[in-house]
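Q: Give me a protein?
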Amino acid sequence: MRKFFGLLTLAFVAFGCSSNSNSDRSIMGPPTGAALSSAMAAGTTDPALCGKGDNGGSGGGSGGGSGVGSALLKGAAGFAVFAASTITNTGPSVVNGDIGLTPGSSVTGFPPGTLTGTLHINDAVTAQAKLDLQAAFTDLVGRPCTTVAPNLDSTLGPGVYCFSTSAQLNTALVLDGQGNPNSLFIFQIGSTLTTASNSSVTLINGASAGNVFWVVGSSATLGTNTAFQGTIIAYSSITMTTGASLTNGRAMALNAAVTLDSNSITNPGAGSAGGGGGGNGNGNGHGKHHKHHKHGKHGGHGGDDDHGDGDRDHHDGDDDHGDD
């Protein structure tokens, strides 16, 4: 009898997901903040949650990680480097994640640089990623400030930090997640972001690099041997000077170039247990079947995401839980 009701529940869940189209999701976008928490707690079949990982916007990419930050980027989440005009590398840079370019056509310097992901140039994946990246940029710059012109050489908690013109990191910035792995750090910078040589960004108390965003009104330049973290979305260009690193981050230039020189960039989701291409929009992010535990709660994400909270576990179609 329990198996009968389990199959009946599965049928209703599958119907709810299959009835939501890709166009519905692209209009609504992924839920964030309270809406995301509410949907996860209720185990709903929200159209933005069915059969989709955080990187499910395009179904492409090597895996953009999980969480609120990747949900904001959608189809752009799997990229470690993304640009519009050119991507140029000098020296033995290492990029862990995908590289994307559109509408330009010139990606040079690989080799001697090493790419562990996939190179996408002017294809359907980059076209969707560009749309999702622009939408994320607009979303992030439109959020109300919680602090104006903070000192970057300090310790900061979650929030939206605003600079009317430029921002400069001189020594060390510590981002304190305060025990919340979903805490967001958004830096809205009106013109330029620059970092001094050997400066650094460090995360403590559960802060996640995937939830750190640097939204730059013109260009960003990381100084020599800077150890940076978070996703940089620059309206124009990004330059990483010799030895600078994005230990967990992305370099994404909306309208100009990304220039690399013996750098290391690792997408926050690259190599993680939740990595993957995301859901395909047809509910396949859950596997062929999604069997439920006795709690009866349904996890909404497929693809990259794994949200385990005690009452809700994510499994693929090959798992068998037995007869509760």
